[in-house]
Design a protein that fits this description.
Blueprint (H helix, E strand, L loop, with lengths): L5 H21 L7 E3 L6 E3 H17 L4 E4 L13 E9 L1 H6 L5 E8 L2 E9 L4 E6 L4 E3 L2 E2 L13 E3 L13 H10 L2 E3 L4 H10 L4 E7 L1 H12 L4 E4 L11 E6 L1 H10 L7
Helix pairs in contact: 1-2, 5-6
The structure holds adenosine-2'-monophosphate and calcium ion (3 copies).
The site of one calcium ion has 5 residues, from strand 4 and helix 6.
Organism: Pelagirhabdus alkalitolerans
Protein name: Myo-inositol-1(Or 4)-monophosphatase
Pfam families: Inositol_P
Length: about 270
């Protein structure tokens, strides 16, 4: 078993997350170099790269044996989760960062032998830090978050999803999604998966479905949400891989049951 000093790594990671966030915040109004990746709406900026490089340098100079799984290419070629792996998205919600200058986050998780031990999601412009250590509860800044309520029904819940999936779409079976949308009280879409998990943890929204999230989009949020009793799995019911893109559903277990009763989640992918 790998040695893991949860408290000291947590304190070090927190310092780096707050520092990286302060740098982004101080340059929010500077002109951006915006490039595209897989398609015209898949954006990346110099600040995504600069921030990831900041974390990679800091981690490598402090923890030589740790590995990094991250979005923008400064990490390692990670094919398994043995040992200590930092899973990092330097800016989650790049479209929000570019267009709205708010509602984006740094997402940083530390896993040990495949187990999520530490999660940080930092809403940079709000200066709001969501954080958790495995087994010790989830926090929004200094405030401990309450366990999720047991009794909420689908009809009184808010569902987060990408509204484009409710329109005819070759990749996703849109009819069950439309039925679900018509059953819940309302839908929301915030544009940052990491923050969406934190809103679940806060209890201000209730369930989340997304089809193509990467490990760095979800790792920290999953650690945080689990601490209030939330469950996240693949839409097939299988465990998350944290190694490649997974279709995910996330909610209190009772709501996950209600969603899977209502529509066959396995048909959604
Ligand atoms: P990103 O901003 O780090 O790319 C947007 O709905 C959410 O989905 C964000 O968390 C975004 O992360 C994530 N996402 C994952 N893959 C994406 C892609 N190919 N294009 C746009 N957003 C993506
Ligand atoms: Ca991206
Ligand atoms: Ca992301
Ligand atoms: Ca990103």
């Amino acid at each position: 078993m790998t040695q893991f000093d949860q408290e000291s790594i947590y304190q070090q990671a927190k310092e780096w997350v707050l520092e990286a966030g302060a740098i982004i915040r101080s340059s929010i109004d500077q002109p951006r170099e915006v490039d595209t990746k897989e398609n015209a709406n898949d954006l990346v900026t110099e600040m995504d790269k600069q921030t990831e490089e900041y974390f990679a340098k800091a981690i490598r100079s402090t923890y030589q044996e740790h590995r990094i799984l991250s979005e923008e290419g400064f990490g390692d070629d990670v094919q398994d989760l043995d040992g200590v792996v930092w899973i990092i998205d330097p800016i989650d919600g790049t479209m929000n960062f570019v267009h709205q200058k708010q509602t984006f986050a740094i997402s940083l998780a530390v896993f040990c032998d495949g187990v999520g031990e530490i999660g940080f999601v930092y809403d940079v412009m709000a200066d709001c830090l969501y954080h958790a250590k495995k087994g010790q509860g989830a926090y929004k800044n200094e405030k401990k978050l309450d366990p999720l309520p047991e009794s909420k029904t689908l009809e009184e819940s808010l569902l987060m999803l990408n509204t484009i999936w409710c329109t005819p779409n070759k990749k996703v079976a849109d009819e069950p999604i439309r039925d679900l949308v018509q059953t819940v009280r309302g839908t929301r879409s915030y544009g940052s998966a990491a923050l969406e998990f934190c809103y679940l943890a806060e209890g201000i929204v209730d369930s989340y479905i997304s089809f193509k999230l990467q490990p760095w989009d979800i790792a920290a949020g999953v650690v945080i949400f689990k601490e209030v009793g939330g469950v996240t799995s693949q839409t097939t019911g299988e465990r998350l891989t944290f190694l490649h893109q997974d279709p995910i559903v996330s909610a209190h277990p009772n709501l996950i049951n209600a969603i899977s009763d209502y529509i066959e989640l396995k048909y959604l992918i």
